[in-house]
Specification:
Oligomer: heterodimer
Distance between the termini of chain A: 137 Å
Radius of gyration of chain B: 18 Å
Radius of gyration of chain A: 65 Å
Structural class of chain B: mainly beta
CATH topology of chain B: Immunoglobulin-like
Distance between the termini of chain B: 25 Å
Number of helices of chain B: 1
Strand content of chain B: over 45%
Amino acid sequence: MSSSVDENIELLEITSPSSTKSYIKTKLKIADNKVGSPPTSSPAHSAKGKPPQPKPRKLALATIKKHKRKLSRTATEATSESQETSNSIKEKHDDFTESIFSSKSDTRSYREKFKERFESVKRQAGKSVSKAHTLRTSTENVKSLKRNLHLIKKENEEIENVLQNYQKNKVQRDGETESVSKIEAYNFFCGENNEDSDVENKETIDLKDFSKSTDVLIAVTDKDDEEPIQFTPADNLYFNIKLSENELYWKPSRNRPKITEKIESEEPRLLAEEGYYVDEKPKLASSHLAILEQRLLSVGEKKWFNCEGELNLLPNPSIETSYKPYLYKQVNKDLETEYVSATIDAVSNEDIFIPHSNILDISILSIKLKHHPLFSPEHVLEQRLITFYDLYKQKLNGNKLERISKRLDALRNTKKNIEATPNSNSEINLKKLEDCINNIRKLRELYFEESRQNREILKSILQTWKDIKKIRQTNNYSNTAIKLNIRKEKCNYEQERRVWDANIEEACNETVSELELELQKRMLNYKKELEQWKLEVEDQEHSEEEIPKKPKKPTKSIDHDIIAQEVSDRFNECFKPPGEPILHFNLSYDNEISDKIENSKEKLRRNVVATTKIYLRLICNKMEVCKSKIVPLTERFTCFIDESFSVQLSTIPEYLIIEVHEQPSTLLKRKLGEIKVVIPPRNVTMAQSKIIEEYFEKDEIVHYKHEGVGSGIEFKKIFPDNNEEDERILYTSGIITCKTGWDISTIDAHVFEETSELEVVQDLLNEDGTINVKKLIEWANENNPDPQDPKNSALYEYIKNYEEDIGIIQNSTKSYFRCNPDMAPFEFCEPKDIEENLRFKVLELRDRNEPEFVGMVVPNRLKEIPADILSDYNRRRKEEGKNLIEDDFDYDEDEIDSKRVHGRKYLKQVYTKVFQQCRNAENNLIYEDVVNEKLLPHIENLTKNIISNILSWFQFQPTINILTPKPTRKTASKITDFNASVKIKINIKSAMNVPLRNAVRSMRSMSNENSEETTVKPFVVATYQNVSLHTAVVDGTDPVYNEELILPLETANTDYLSPNSLSGSIVIRLFDEVTITTRNGNAKARNWLGSIEIPVSAIAYNNKMEGLFKLRKPTNLLGYEQEVDDAYSNTRVSNARQAAVQHTYLSLKVTLQPNIPKLTQSMDELETTELPYIKQHILNWNEAYNNEYPNRKFSAFAVDINGKTTCVTRYIRPLEPPQLNLDRFDVSLEQCARYVSMIPFTDSNKFYQNVWLSTEQLLKLMVGSVIDHAIALTCYLTSLDLETWLLLGYGLLHGTTAYVLIREYNRESQIPLHFIYDVVTATKYDIMDVLCPLQKIFCVINEQNVWGNVQRTDQIQLTRFDFMRRSDWLPLFTNQVSAPTNSVQQKLIYSVTPDIKQLEVRIDKKIRKKISKLRKHERTVWNHHLSRAFKNTVIKNETGSMLGRRNSELYPEIRNFTSSNFINGYIINMPYTTVSTILATIVATGVHLYEGVDTEFGLAVKIYPYPNHVLAVWICFAAIISRQLDF
Amino acid sequence: MSDGTFLLSLSGQIDYISILAGAGSSWHCKYEFVAGPDWKIVGGLEAGLSQTANVVSNGEDIVLNLPIDIVYKSTNLHGWPQIVLSVYSGINLQGYGRSHIPLQPGLHKLNISLSKPQPSSFLGYLGTFFGYQPELLQPKMLASTAGNNLIQMMSSGEVYVTINNVFQGLNILGYDIGRVN
């Protein structure tokens, strides 16, 4: 071995470098080509070419390994060299692919050339590789490889040259071939039918072969230490396995064997053809069948096949249809699944695992033998006597006889009554009489019978007793202890005789009358029959047939004597004859049984009796279970056993058998008899069970030689001398007294209740589980439960109530409600207890949202609740009962204030009541209040845009941009925001027309003032409930702010369940910032310029309010320029225009985010004053309108002061306005408006805007909503013969509110002009005006009708006001339904306004006091001179405004002041509400904050009274800085 | 407690949300407590917002482990506290859940089913395909009955909450909370 190795080393030394080189090269090539081939398959491929020769290969590999180190140096050299070549080849390859990419035609020649080369190389290499493994050919191979390498080198050079050429060409053609090459490339890689790809495929396959070998070799060269053994091709095990498997395994073929193979006989018999019945065979797949058959045949078991050559397949045993009938409803009791409620207790768990130990207790008390063979005759008689005596007792107790006689008497009385009635011959009476007589007869018979029986018993008893006595006498001894005591009761013979006779006579009479009656009947019958017969006879004459017999005439056969005889016989038989004493019996057992007897037979008998013993056997299921003790038979033949047994039953039989056995001393044991004891129901315990007396008898024949009578003997035989016809045969018989019951431990209490009650209850229940009263009554009648038993009283009550209910409806006496008894356990206390408990009461009221209790904390303990907690509530309840304001309201000395206070209070009550109604109504929320769908409009717009774009696409006008900006949402919300998540955002854009300071002029004159002071520096402050925010200060008369102020809205304000939510308003004030000189230098102060009040609810109900808000300026702003319109122009239009220029406007956008839930009134749930059909009509109309125009929702119903709904038209009616001016008779339009605007307004929630007050109520309460005022104004204006409507719409400031619409005709043009009146400010707006606050019109209302706005546009300017046009205005009332006529408006009576001087003074004082108090650091100096000057101005102002003129001109007195002083202040006019509101308004303006040196204040208060307590308050308040001091 | 009040201390956590969550979505949950008028918070937060939890693979539970801690003081049992949960995926609502606080002291595991309001109109329904989802203005309304007749909800998942509550002074006031295991 070693020598050969040495040889190999030498050889390898020479060859290995080159060979490795080529291998590496090819390897790299393949890698570049990226043709991966699984290396595992390589051995197989190589093995294909050459059969495996393991041995030499091993050797070769081993040698290579050994000489590795020597080779290493040369190998590295070679590798570096080969690296180069491989690189070139790599390039070549790249180019090759590239060339294919670039152009097909061009590279064709190259490729072919290359391919040839390649293949030749490959062939060589492949050969060499395959050979490389073998030692034998290695040297040759190495040589050839060397040659090959040279060839490859040469070729490389060649190809390089060619490639260079091509490279050049390619650059030239690059541009034109690019596009083609892509497609080419695609085809090259993906096209299957492409020639090129075929070539490529071939190549890859070839390369695969190649790679295997190279891989192997490289692995060899790379790894130093590992044995190369791993590269041997594996044995083709699979083939071997397969081969061996084929030998070992047998696979049945899938072809069916021939029939001849399967059958033993030569020819198959076809049974079906022969006429035999052949079962249908189950369907099996034929291949399966074939396999099965093949298998069977291979074993040679032909017995599985039948004569037909088929497998003996049995028919399918499963049946598709069910034999079990489907049970409709009726479920078999045994199959029924029972619901057993889950139990936790261990005790009740037991019955899941352990079956009931069915222990039955049987206690046998005694055996009483009624007859026994050992009876002596005396005994027999004794038993007889006892039997009779029992009967006697029974009769006596039953008292039947007496009852029958009483009934008889009663019947007789009725009979007499019937006969006594005057028209006794009428048919009904006759009928009655007949019935009566019949009844009497029957009863009498019964009576006789009963009586006779009694008498018989008496006789028998006496007879038997006589016999006993006789027997005792004859025998000279007695065997029994029985003794009959007879008590005789003496009777009065005479009396009884009379009764006797009378009875007989009566009975006789009755019998006679009965007979007569019968006779009459028979006579009638006879007559009928006779007629019948006659007819028949007539018929028969013609037909000459047998003539039927003529009916016999009944004969009168009443013989009184015979009857009397019969009756008296009967009486003798049945009744005690008169004079016979009445007998009373009593049995006792105190007769002495004689011990000494001479009679030997008797002695024998006694002996036998004494030795005879008796025992009992208890047999259950034919098995003896127990045996009683043996008891001797006593002389009395009564054995007291008194023993109880417990039997545990596995299965419960129907009955047990008790056998009586006798054990005589000498004779065999014998059975005397047996009884069956029925097993009691499961619930009966021993204590409850009754004593059972079972009778047994055995018909045996026994004869004794002794005195014993034996058994099976006739009674007569014993007593031949007995006269009685007793044919009884005496058999052994007796009575066993026993008791059975279940052991108490085995009875579950529940089982007891259920089973005992349920059986009854089941019968009584209807199918649906209710109690069927009829059945209950039936049951009660049947079972007769004791009505006196308190347990049953409920039952009877129930029945009684039911009868009451079913019967005539009468005043049922029951004062209670029968609750479902199952609910009783859930009642944890009496409902009364809860009602009486103050705490519960308060809790309940709070839960009902009664306003007094909302938000109240209820203490847990009763003692902590103040006793008067309900007083407020009760008072309110009481007041609610009163309908209207009392006229004789007791005003205090301060009449004006108290009236207003009372009015506000009352209105609040009304509102609260309405709110309460609404809150407790069912549908008080609308969807929008609950669900936030604010992205929906965005989607709506999106879809609209998409659709319109699609449409415009067809019109070739794709214009509109699809995406409107999506509303962005801030995702992050602070946790602290959750409490006040609702915010009011006020976007203050700009202000217009801010008044200039008056100082401008004056300052100009003062040369030393800077220009800064000359203009105005306004800023805006927004306030809501003590939260104020302000904007920056922007100079100029038209400042632009663009600021957003965010006011938080507390949860208390947004709680929709609180009646006070959303009240109040946001006040936006415009201030001017000024610099004033104080002691501490210059300071900033602000001058109030005006304010806007926006009710929060107005925003909340519309979520958004946007537009130009007119600033409500004071009448006079002192210290600011007033652009006075010197003379009012003639045309009102231009006037309005001018006014627009004059006024200051704020451009605002107020939004509320997010939406908050608001209650909505559902008008159909409230009571109405309208007729039902009108109500329905209005509701339908309103709903249809609101659905169609969701942006213009309004209610055609208003809620009046009593919480009832009224049609809105009824609120409009001409009402005479008050006499406002003394000098002129006519009241002008402006005066009315001003008067109305001077009535105070409420600042409550918009929720209440559906609550409308009539004008009378408004004047009485002196407070009302905007709508109430608008109604009043409309009514006034209607009376002034103006075309006026109440307009419901949406406007700035007040949101959805009411305006007064007036139509005026111009002299010049035919087109009518429309104006609206804002009742709050008493300003008139032209509807065409841009600055008109009205933004949407919902409807207009007048006395006759309501017109809903159905115009498409919301723009006021484009709205047409021709109400007759159906296309523009939808009328509520048409010809079919006309408006309700009677108005809610009453004629107005204006009360006289009391003197206001005091009030004036008081307000003045209070303001002064307040201002002084607020100015803590400064002394407040009041300039009285100014005050006086103001007062005069104010009076003139009022008269001016009443004339409809705004005279803002300063009056000379004030002029004088301004010339010498700086004055900053205002004159404002407001309705008088309370002093505190006036104070608040004054304070809010902040004039008092002036802290300048030598500042004085001037104040004037003037109240102008109008009728009915309407007061216009004028206040002038100014700070005066003396001008001289500035210098 | 001598002043006729009792205390209810709740502590626990919102464990996780089990909902059909797609991979890559991020979720958060908001909780609020709603109680009757007698109930005053003496400690802890009435409302809270969880961190955002990202879902990596489809359908996995969103584990929040958001601690809840609140102490109530009350005089009456009426208006027993309820927890209202709002679950959001990104900024889109995924469901609301509501549950009463357990009436017995001890550790309680609640699984609160979630539901989300259905859009009112067909257009809104179409909008749901584009991620539109109506929301409740005040999720607290779920704790009362008002307005519940107006909304249609669809169930959407479950939130698992662990709550440990302790009472003080309830027995003194005569309330029996039954046998506690």
